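#struct-pred

JT: dropping the chains for the assembly here, can someone run the whole complex?
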Amino acid sequence: MIPPDQGNNATDQVERLIALLAKLPGMGRRSARRAALRLLRDPAGLMLPLADAMRSTAEAVRPCRLCGNLDTVDPCRICTDPNRDQEVLCVVEGVADLWALERARVHRGLYHVLGGVLSALSGVGPEDLRVDPLLARVSDGHVREVILALPATVDGATTAHYLHDRLRPTGASVTRLAQGVPMGGALDVMDDGTLAAALKARRPA
Amino acid sequence: MIPPDQGNNATDQVERLIALLAKLPGMGRRSARRAALRLLRDPAGLMLPLADAMRSTAEAVRPCRLCGNLDTVDPCRICTDPNRDQEVLCVVEGVADLWALERARVHRGLYHVLGGVLSALSGVGPEDLRVDPLLARVSDGHVREVILALPATVDGATTAHYLHDRLRPTGASVTRLAQGVPMGGALDVMDDGTLAAALKARRPA
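RK: done, full complex below.
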């Protein structure tokens, strides 16, 4: 380890900024340095506005107590939107997936953010996820359908199975996203699992 | 264009944060969203410290009036370091290159940050770069050698030629970085220009 102020004349302050930027996903040490330089080149136009946006967002945004979505109000604007179907609940792994579905504007019901998926390997059990709050919401009796929009991975499928079992007593119908060839997907680059799933779930043309 | 609060339930505040993050080099819209989520997941541990680091850095760090390096003091710590050779000046395109040379600990003289290279295509002329301050520094008579550590590109070579011409009257010796095969570089993946330069500049083994 070369001490920052020996191998590098960047001040401790800049080093600290780089270290924090490097914690962002997709950022390595090298790209964090480039980002720091970009910020240093435009303090008034980028660095201070970004600092302010982070501070005010950190202070304003919190998880919704009902669904786990992130918003400046709690319950969030989705949960309190009278135009949304309160009887259909879409279960997602995280907020990123909720945002993706909202961008696609395909789901007009409510959401439930699980906060992860079950994983024996990573030691994630049901108690680590927002499973009990989900059961409580569905047991209220207002929910007609629970859509499991979990990742198409082994852990995602395990979690869907588990939730299906736990949700059975509530009487709500439990559905899953269809699996198949994605839009625009060329068959020759699809993996075998996708092709098998797409063939198995084939429908009349 | 889908309005942020229609196609996406992320608040305007989060949208603004994402838009600012997307301005960082190497960040696209998608990775900025992932970065925003990572920040939102850890407000106290990452988002607020990063906001503070940006604010304090923006307020503290400024370009050195002598060499153009970024530091919290002006003149910077390199320019005022009595252990460095005041008679050797290394000319670099930007602060990133200065940092790279400092990390390698190979130059014990001073620096001069040009702020770019000449480019007919991008319309960058000598008046856009810190050329006059360089000539003033060298004309003082204290500078024995000017090392042109400019990028090994057409624009970098053009700039080096131009600076060599302008520096001739000062009497200082002007040198350039050697070109050749980089350390650990396999010959079969080198481009022709590098191989040609390395062969031309061959030395006794």
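JT: nice. Chain B touches chain A through 58 residues (CB under 8 Å). Residues 1-9 of chain B have pLDDT under 50 and may be disordered.
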